Amino acid sequence: MIHYDHLRFKEDLQVASKVYWADLRADYRENLPQKLTRLMKTAGMGQIDFEDKFAAIKLHFGEPGNLAFLRPNWAKAVADFVKERGGKPFLTDCNTLYVGGRKNALDHMDAAMLNGFSPLSTGCQIIIADGLKGNDEVEVPVRGGEYVQKAKIGRAVMDADVFISLTHFKGHEEASFGGALKNIGMGCGSRAGKMEQHNAGKPHVAQDHCVGCGACTRICAHSGVTVTDRKATIDHSRCVGCGRCIAVCPRDAIRVNWDETVTNLNRKIAEYAQAVVDGRPCFHISLVIDVSPNCDCHPENDAAIIPNVGMFASFDPVALDMACADAVNAQPPLPGAAAAGDCGHDHFHHLHPETDWMSCLEHAEKLGMGSREYELIKI
């Protein structure tokens, strides 16, 4: 059994944010969706005025072929909570930058339906926030922004009166992990917004590892990779830094330069998240289950790296991400998983050593989005 007392930051409880946590134990008296509902109530989500308000529930519908994404049952529990309080919820996400099953609104909705998301299964409609081709956006000023002055956010996200993030907490090959800030910042960016965030982080090919298989050329949406004499090269004038080639390379030959670029990506994610949540009621939920090494954007998912931990909720997305990261890193790696071995108490850095996940949380805290200090409260 894992004890979480050591995860509570006690330096100054007056500024520490409250993060609520529930394990995944259930019986005939309370199933897991009911337990999530109790978590939301206990964490104070019911304090939000939902009456006649449009409530965007931002989640990831999962790339076709991926099975680690959150089941629609979780979304239904959140949507029902909103509807019971007079609100008008809808599920939403923005289109992807890379080639895949969610690159336009029609394909995106087909993917959502394929993965079980529908008005019948979730109790609410689906709206792809940045429109048919990913260019229906609103330029939103970033208060205190150092890297982005105006974030390009999907219009439907900004049209909502209330914003709720429902996040599958998992690994990520560039951000290190995909938590609430990643779900909000990158996920709510339009196609141009995603390009702006990825723009500085451009990978290179370690030629001695490359075998010229061409997987990177097939995945690149911008014709930025070519293979000559069985060696791939990346044209940085075309590359947008999306990182898809990194994920598909079977020999780990495509790598991110260890410099400021990955840190800047994480800081841009924080600034985009700030643009989304600033000035309106928000609430954040993260489920630390099926913690796959990489993003749900992959058309596959590797085995979970740790045992399932539970469900977390908070008004503070920074504290929520910190608590979830601590909870994951407190777990032993599962035998045979990608994170197996000596992780140095950081599974995500062990999986993706060229990433810097703390930079996102530090920058979000600097922007005033929340605090990395938290009090973990188990229900």
TrEMBL record:
What molecular function terms (GO) are annotated for this protein? 4 iron, 4 sulfur cluster binding; metal ion binding
All residue ranges annotated as the 4Fe-4S ferredoxin-type domain in the record: 201-229, 230-259
Source organism superkingdom = Bacteria
Q: Keyword annotations for this protein?
A: 4Fe-4S, Iron, Iron-sulfur, Metal-binding
InterPro entries hit by this protein: 4Fe4S_Fe-S-bd, 4Fe4S_Fe_S_CS, DUF362, PSI_iron-sulfur_center
**Which function does this protein serve?**
Ferredoxins are iron-sulfur proteins that transfer electrons in a wide variety of metabolic reactions.
Q: Supply the name of the protein.
A: Ferredoxin
Give the organism the record lists.
Answer: Brotocaccenecus cirricatena
Taxonomic placement = Bacteria, Bacillati, Bacillota, Clostridia, Eubacteriales
